């Protein structure tokens, strides 16, 4: 094989390997959409919603005619005898035939059953509950994904800060090496800068490991295979200063409140279904069939069939059950009152979360602005200190302090950006607009 073909195969191999490990750029919108389609919670919520339709079908079936068919064949090995008195003389007569069989069909239709009617309403309300609960599950998933997403991004920024610090320190190392070679600087200065580089490299590895763990946590949060490589876009941290002026939220639009209110409807229907035990019930029934008897098996000449049929109404009137129904109704009433307390507590909690989010947004905006100015100032100080060190006007300690000050300022900025984004998510949630993250 000539050298040209060998080189072509090597290049092709490298390209195929790079394609297999190509990173997937993942925006927050894409991460949320992926989670809503693939995460277990979202899938189970959709299955609950689908299952509610079957629950409605099950209850509705009780209001439809119930049709049953039956048949049996019996062989009487010993035919019982009945004693009968004829003029003072007892006669024993066999009652029945060796073979008998029945076959028939019966129909039962509910005409009035208050419990059944209430159950139909409850089934439809259950479907509405699962619809709202599915929305709540989606919102909870969106919040979780957004927090995990920004946590990964913040760690990436920390890694960038360390890389920038390493770059600056390596430049300083090159300068010191030249100064040591020229006899202007001391060897101990070079050793100190090498120790600083080693420390930064160790810190970098710690952050790299943390970043891998957080990326795995994000992939798990959205239901993505762990082996998938992801990369976050650079424009993730957009600041929306107008959110600090957000108006008071409308609690009626919060999914958490809607779920609780729908639960209250279900509990009220449950109480009504218990009250239905006081109502009479009326149903219609009918049957059509055949009875057969004979000394031979069914189908033989010694076996005869006789038609039977009947129609009727069945009325059931509850009179007294020892107060059991009343006790159940009282228990259901207590459950409703307990839920009313939960709803009021939920409203207070949502109001608190809203006010805290708005306060955090305002504080974070101020902190982000201050940290950005501090980062710029630290860069200016580092540039001046580096220039002074080259000209013998600053010590190595001052130079290292300036580098550390810049790294600290950048980390403080990253932390304040993360705090802002977390507060932004909470405020979006408080306004009931988490779904907007899907359509940004």
From TrEMBL:
Keyword Coiled coil applies: yes
Annotated TM spans: none
Highest rank taxon of the organism: Bacteria
Annotated localization: Cell outer membrane
UniProtKB keywords: Cell outer membrane, Coiled coil, Membrane, Signal, Transmembrane, Transmembrane beta strand, Transport
Signal peptide per UniProt: 1-22
Coiled-coil spans in chain: 329-356, 399-440
Family as reported in the entry's similarity comment: Belongs to the outer membrane factor (OMF) (TC 1.B.17) family.
PANTHER family, sorted: OUTER MEMBRANE PROTEIN TOLC (PTHR30026)
Protein name: TolC family protein
């Amino acid at each position: 094989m000539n050298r040209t073909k060998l080189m072509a195969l090597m290049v092709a191999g490298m390209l195929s390997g790079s394609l297999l490990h190509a990173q997937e750029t993942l925006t927050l919108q894409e991460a949320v959409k992926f989670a809503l389609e693939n995460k277990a919670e979202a899938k189970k919520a959709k299955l609950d919603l689908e299952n509610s339709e079957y629950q409605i079908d099950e209850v509705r079936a009780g209001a439809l005619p119930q049709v049953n068919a039956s048949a049996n064949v019996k062989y009487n090995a010993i035919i019982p005898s009945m004693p009968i008195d004829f003029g003072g003389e007892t006669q024993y007569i066999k009652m029945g035939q060796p073979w008998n069989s029945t076959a028939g069909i019966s129909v039962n239709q509910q005409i009035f059953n208050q419990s059944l009617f209430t159950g139909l309403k409850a089934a439809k309300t259950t479907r509405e509950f699962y619809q709202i609960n599915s929305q709540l599950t989606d919102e909870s998933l969106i919040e979780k994904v957004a927090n995990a997403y920004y946590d990964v991004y913040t760690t990436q920024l920390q890694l960038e800060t360390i890389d920038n610090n390493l770059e600056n320190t390596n430049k300083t190392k090159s300068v010191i090496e030249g100064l040591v070679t020229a006899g202007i600087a001391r060897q101990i200065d070079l050793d100190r800068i090498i120790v600083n580089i080693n420390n930064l490299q160790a810190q970098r590895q710690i952050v790299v490991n943390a970043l891998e763990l957080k990326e795995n946590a994000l992939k798990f949060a959205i239901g993505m295979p762990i082996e998938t490589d992801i990369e976050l876009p650079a424009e993730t941290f957009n600041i929306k200063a107008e959110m600090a002026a957000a108006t008071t939220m409308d609690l009626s639009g919060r999914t958490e409140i809607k779920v609780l209110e729908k639960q209250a409807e279900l509990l009220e229907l449950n109480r009504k279904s218990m009250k239905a035990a006081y109502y009479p019930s009326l149903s219609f029934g009918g049957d059509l069939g055949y009875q057969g008897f004979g000394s031979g098996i069914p189908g033989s000449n010694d076996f005869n069939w006789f038609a039977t049929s009947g129609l009727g109404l069945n009325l059931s009137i509850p009179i007294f059950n020892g107060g059991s129904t009343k006790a159940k109704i009282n228990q259901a009433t207590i459950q409703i009152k307990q839920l009313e307390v939960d709803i009021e507590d939920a409203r207070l909690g949502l109001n608190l979360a809203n006010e805290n989010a708005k306060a955090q947004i305002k504080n974070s905006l101020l902190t982000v602005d201050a940290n950005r100015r501090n980062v710029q100032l630290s860069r200016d100080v580092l540039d001046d200190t580096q220039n002074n060190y080259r000209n013998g006007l600053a010590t190595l300690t001052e130079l290292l302090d300036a580098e550390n000050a810049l790294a600290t300022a950048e980390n403080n900025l990253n932390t304040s950006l993360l705090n802002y984004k977390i507060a932004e998510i909470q405020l979006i949630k408080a306004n009931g607009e988490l779904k907007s993250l899907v359509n940004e």
